[in-house]
Amino acid sequence: MAKQHDKQFKLDAVRYYEEHKELGLRGCAENLGVGYSTLGKWSKELQDSGSIECRGSGNYASDESKEIARLKRELRDTQDALDVLKKAIGILGK
């Protein structure tokens, strides 16, 4: 499961990388406990836009997309339960 980092952590991580270029991206990422591609993404995002986006839990673009994802999970779980019940009926019906 991926860790969720707040905006301040991301900014501090990029600042750390900028101040310790001699360690390289991988070295800094390892010291911070994040993936090197993640640190690279944060650095590029800050360089390109001057800010780092932090969407919050689950990284959903909006409350609507978060609700859609929740409903899809609920539907999948319900369908799984229905499949189990159908198999049980098939076994008990013999």
Task: Summarize this structure as a short list of keywords or feature phrases.
94 residues, mainly alpha, Arc Repressor Mutant, subunit A, 2 domains, 4 helices
Describe the structure.
The chain is mainly alpha-helical and 94 residues long. The protein folds into two domains: 1-56, Homeodomain-like (Arc Repressor Mutant, subunit A, Orthogonal Bundle); 60-94. The chain contains four helices and no strands. Helix 1 packs across helix 3 (36-49) and helix 2 crosses helix 3. The longest helix is centred in the last third of the chain and has 30 residues, at 63-92. The chain is elongated. The chain starts with 6 loop residues before the first helix and ends with a helix. The model has no long low-confidence stretch (mean pLDDT 83).
How do the helices and strands line up, and which of them pair or pack?
Elements: H1 7-19, H2 24-32, H3 36-49, H4 63-92
Helix pairs in contact: 1-3, 2-3
Quick rundown:
With about 90 residues, this protein is mainly alpha-helical. Helices cover about 70% and strands about 0% of the residues.
Structural class: mainly alpha
Instruction: Identify low-pLDDT runs.
Output: none
Termini Cα gap: 42 Å
CATH architecture of the largest domain: Orthogonal Bundle
Mean pLDDT: 83
Strand content: under 5%
CATH superfamily of the largest domain: Homeodomain-like
GO molecular function: DNA binding; transposase activity
Pfam family, one: HTH_Tnp_1
Organism: Acetobacterium wieringae
Coiled coil: 61-88
